[in-house]
Specification:
A hairpin with a 5-residue loop joins strand 19 and strand 20. About 20% of the residues lie in helices and about 30% in strands. It starts with a strand and ends in a 13-residue tail after the last helix. By secondary structure, the chain is of the alpha+beta class. Helix 5 runs antiparallel to helix 6.
Length: about 280
């Protein structure tokens, strides 16, 4: 039987009762709810929830579970000449979603940004006979084994002539983004890079729910790794987090602002002015 953590959506295989705790939630980058750890069977989830689909541009769909479940992230399907790629994952794999993905040609690969979005990746891989690409630095956070899991190492991994994964670190050691070399350039970032509510800037955190920032060295590394890429569009983990132009400039400018804030002493000599 498969049971899901209600707080983060991570799936566990159980014989009878649910686990006492979720390892993902016990980590300081997530949290255990005040009312304690709660669980839901996958069958129950798909009976009470469904997935909302959005076409963002030709060959790029997102899927998001409604009503919101756990962290509430969206997954993406990219259609490429070599096959469809699922970027990040959601826990709800219902019959309608299975039928729609199969009608699009199934999946040839599943790639994940970081462990908070692993959810039910094992079930997606089994349904569509697709390998799962996870960075080896995050392998300790795999809560269910699967023969589909492929651990990759290093700083980048090509999935097709136009698509490659880039390890940026930060939020997690193996935290990765996906770069799609279209004419305008597309970056799918999960929340390794967090798009701000106005969709005109980005930011970075080690823990989002616990409001713990990344150190300057990590932000510089992310900025410098992305400086060699061209991308206009950035799609983040949550609905409305879409930057549709000047994405590379926005990442650079936002990184510089973040670093300036960290460098500020906050002394009275600043007269309350921003440090940038």
């Amino acid at each position: 039987m498969i049971t899901l953590c209600k707080a983060c959506g991570t799936s566990y295989s159980v014989d009878a009762t649910a686990p006492n705790s979720c390892k993902i939630c016990l980590d300081e980058r997530q949290y255990v709810p005040v009312k304690g750890q709660q669980w839901i069977a996958h069958d129950r989830l798909v009976a009470t929830h469904r997935n909302h689909w959005t076409l963002h541009q030709p060959k790029l769909f997102s899927l998001q579970t409604v009503p919101e479940f756990a962290i509430g992230q969206r997954a993406f399907i990219l259609q490429t000449p070599e096959g469809n790629i699922l970027w990040d994952c959601i826990a709800c794999l219902d019959e309608a979603t299975k039928a729609l993905v199969h009608s699009l040609g199934g999946l040839t690969a599943i790639a994940l940004s970081h462990p908070h979005y692993y959810t039910a990746m094992q079930d997606w891989a089994a349904e569509f006979n697709a390998p799962i690409y996870l960075h080896s630095d995050d392998q300790q956070w795999i809560m269910r084994s699967s023969p589909a899991i492929r651990l990759w190492e290093g700083e980048s991994l090509p999935l097709s002539p136009q698509i490659r994964l880039l390890r940026l670190g930060g939020h997690f050691a193996g935290g990765s983004v996906l770069h799609w070399s279209t004419d305008e350039g597309v970056l799918l970032v999960g929340d390794i890079i967090q798009i701000t509510p106005g969709a005109d800037a980005v930011s970075f955190m080690w823990s989002y729910p616990n409001l713990l920032p990344l150190p300057a060295q990590s932000v510089r590394s992310i900025r410098d790794r992305l400086a060699t890429l061209g991308f206009s569009k950035i799609y983040g983990a949550f609905s409305g987090q879409d930057i549709l132009q000047r994405g590379d400039d926005i990442v650079r400018q936002s990184s510089d602002k973040y670093l300036a804030c960290l460098a500020s002493t906050g002394s009275s000599s600043n007269d309350g002015k921003r440090p940038y």
